[in-house]
């Protein structure tokens, strides 16, 4: 399902401009949406999921204008949504929770519903915990329940908002791998402020800063934003004054710095290949703030 | 709507607190009011219909406070638990979901009330050998008690949108005494009017008569003579008020969505 927004703007009461004239084009497949906290990602996700009305602009998902009631219903029929602050009913088991959501999603036939829930619990590796109450689940397990509920109706569009925040490294890797596997012929829109998650799963991405779209394209293009501008410098002296320090690792008597700078920040600085994080930071360094 | 109703009913009716609070308040009621004799004076406790009307009078003086207070935390529960994001992204109609929640929660919260009332009817039927009491208890519950509960349930859905549930509970108890129980001559009050949720108009208008204007009291324009018509009017008022409250809740939700 293709997502297209045109001049999309959301102004909250109090004149807070959360989204500002965003023109976005998201193809089928895994797509990353990067941005710092407060960049407007969650607002954009909520608009795309039909939870918020934009102040102005167009939002078309799979040919349906989500700002119309009919369009919203049509999109939500093919949508799976995992919100950033996913909550559950703590007194229900994972199976009962999914059963309730499945009923609300219109999976009325009991046997088909049970079969689907059983399949999904296996997909998210919760088959053994299906009949445990959700109050005892870890953060990672709850996110997996969240993904299972999002997949109940076999959606063409999966919107996941900051799904790996707060997860331990192992759970994070497992979760993002699962998202990649789910992409297939779906559109999976992954919103996050963790660059590594996008680097490991997405071929294309967009970057939001203060409600504005400052980049959209392939991850390689974002990496190239930092080409020739990333440097390694090991010194026992003071931190380099020029450039933006990305990393500082103590090494022997000195410190090894990784920097982003337009020109070599020190005579001994060595150029290195940029990563997606370097590209993102280089972009944000020149983005309008 | 059906799925929401079923879920909300089960979640509420399984709350131990619901039953515990009802039982405690019922114990106080039974200890202080003539719940066992059903002799309120003016009615024949030996007549099953009169006995069930007396049982309703006694229970409805107190139990609606439990009913309203136990509902107050349910409307905001989805938001408090963080489930509202997932639910709102589901194509099921939000108005249908609100109605399902309202019906499920109100039915569940009324279940202990109904159980106590039917329990008294069963006891009466066994002790007095009057099986008709069972039938009358259902008739009285549906016609005298249920319409008021429909309104009070909607009020308990709308109130916590304006004030926190805890404060709403305090205000609700105050409202219950002021608007339904205090003598009409004490101060301007909704007691004994068609806006009161105690079901007097249904009880008197359909079953007994002998109830109506109190010229010495304020707001007497709201106290027509109790007749079958004014009883039907009271039911209509309760349902209309409940609908109005639910419309307010829905409008509030729409406003929040924007």
Could you provide a short overview of the structure?
Chain B: Keywords: Membrane, Transmembrane, Transmembrane helix. Chain A is of the alpha/beta class and 289 residues long.
Characterise this structure.
The complex is a heterodimer of chains A (289) and B (258). Chain A has helices spanning 41-48, 69-77, 94-104, 110-123, 139-151, 169-183, 195-201, 219-224, 276-286; strands at residues 3-12, 16-26, 29-34, 56-61, 64-65, 79-82, 157-161, 187-192, 204-209, 212-218, 230-235, 244-251, 254-260, 270-271. Chain A is an alpha/beta fold. Chain A folds into 2 domains: 3-218, P-loop containing nucleotide triphosphate hydrolases (Rossmann fold), CATH 3.40.50.300; 228-273, no CATH class. In chain A, the strands form 3 sheets. A 6-stranded mixed β-sheet of chain A has the order 6-7-8-3-9-10, sandwiched between helices. In chain A, strand 12 and strand 13 form a beta hairpin. In chain A, helix 3 (94-104) packs across helix 4 and helix 4 (110-123) crosses helix 5. The longest helix of chain A has 15 residues, at 169-183. The radius of gyration of chain A is 21 Å and the shape is globular. The model of chain A has no long low-confidence stretch (mean pLDDT 89). Chain B is mostly helical. Chain B has a domain at 2-181. Chain B is 72% helix and 0% strand. Chain B is built from 10 helices and no strands. Chain B has helices spanning 2-13, 16-32, 48-71, 77-81, 84-88, 94-128, 132-162, 165-181, 200-208, 228-257. In chain B, helix 3 runs antiparallel to helix 8. Classes of the chains: A alpha/beta (289), B mainly alpha (258). The A-B interface holds A 46, 49-53, 72-73, 76-77, 79, 81-83, 85-91, 100-101, 103-106, 146, 149 and B 3-4, 7, 11, 14, 81-92, 97, 257-258. Chain A: This is ABC transporter ATP-binding protein. Chain A: Keywords: ATP-binding, Nucleotide-binding, Transport. Chain A: GO terms for molecular function: ATP binding; ATP hydrolysis activity. Chain A: It holds the Pfam family ABC_tran. Chain A: Residues 3-235 form the ABC transporter domain.
């Amino acid at each position: 399902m293709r997502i297209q927004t045109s001049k999309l703007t959301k102004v909250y009461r109090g004149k807070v401009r959360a989204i500002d004239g965003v023109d976005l084009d998201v193809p089928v497949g895994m797509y990353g949406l990067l941005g710092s906290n407060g960049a407007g990602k969650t607002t954009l996700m909520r608009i795309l999921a039909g939870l918020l009305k934009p102040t102005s602009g167009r939002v078309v998902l799979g040919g349906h204008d989500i700002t119309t009631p009919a369009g919203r219903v049509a999109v939500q029929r093919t949508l799976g949504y995992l919100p950033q602050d996913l909550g559950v009913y703590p007194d229900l088991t994972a199976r009962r929770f999914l059963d309730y959501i499945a009923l609300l999603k219109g999976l009325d036939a009991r046997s088909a519903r049970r079969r689907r829930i059983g399949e999904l619990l296996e997909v998210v590796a919760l088959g053994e915990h299906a009949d445990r109450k959700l109050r005892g689940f870890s953060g990672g397990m709850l996110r997996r329940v969240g993904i299972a509920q999002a997949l109940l109706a076999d959606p063409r569009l999966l919107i996941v908002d900051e799904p790996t925040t707060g997860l331990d490294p192992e759970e994070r890797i497992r979760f993002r791998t699962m998202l990649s596997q789910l992409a297939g012929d779906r559109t999976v829109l992954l919103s996050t402020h963790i660059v590594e998650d996008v680097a490991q799963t997405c071929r294309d991405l967009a970057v939001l800063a203060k409600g504005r779209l400052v980049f959209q394209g392939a991850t390689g293009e974002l990496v190239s934003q930092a080409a020739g501008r990333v440097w390694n410098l090991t010194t026992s002296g003071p931190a380099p004054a020029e450039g933006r320090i990305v990393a500082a690792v103590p090494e022997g008597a000195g410190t090894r710095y990784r920097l982003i700078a337009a020109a070599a920040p020190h005579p001994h600085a060595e150029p290195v290949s940029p990563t997606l994080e370097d590209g993102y930071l280089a972009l944000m360094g020149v983005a309008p703030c | 709507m059906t799925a929401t109703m079923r879920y909300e009913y089960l979640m509420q009716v399984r709350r131990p607190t619901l039953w515990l609070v009802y039982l405690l308040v019922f114990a106080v009621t039974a200890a202080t009011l003539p719940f066992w004799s059903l002799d309120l004076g003016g009615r024949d406790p030996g007549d099953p219909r009169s006995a069930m009307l007396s049982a309703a009078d006694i229970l409805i003086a107190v139990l609606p406070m439990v009913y309203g207070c136990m509902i107050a935390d349910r409307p905001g529960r989805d938001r408090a638990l963080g489930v509202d994001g997932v639910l709102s992204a589901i194509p099921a109609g939000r108005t249908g979901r609100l109605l399902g929640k309202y019906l499920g929660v109100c039915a569940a919260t009324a279940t202990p009330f109904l159980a106590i009332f039917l329990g008294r009817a069963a006891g009466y039927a066994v002790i007095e050998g009057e099986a008709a009491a069972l039938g009358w208890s259902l008739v009285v519950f549906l016609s005298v008690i249920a319409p008021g509960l429909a309104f009070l349930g909607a009020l308990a859905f709308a109130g916590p949108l304006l004030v926190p549930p805890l404060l709403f509970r305090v205000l609700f108890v105050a409202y219950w005494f002021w608007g339904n129980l205090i003598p009409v001559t004490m101060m301007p009050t909704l007691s004994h009017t068609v806006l009161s949720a105690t079901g007097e108009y249904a009880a008197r208008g359909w079953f007994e008569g002998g109830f109506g204007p109190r010229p010495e009291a304020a707001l007497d324009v709201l106290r027509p003579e109790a007749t079958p018509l004014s009883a039907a009017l009271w039911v209509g008022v309760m349902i209309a008020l409940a609908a109005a409250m639910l419309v307010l809740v829905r409008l509030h939700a729409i406003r929040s969505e924007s």
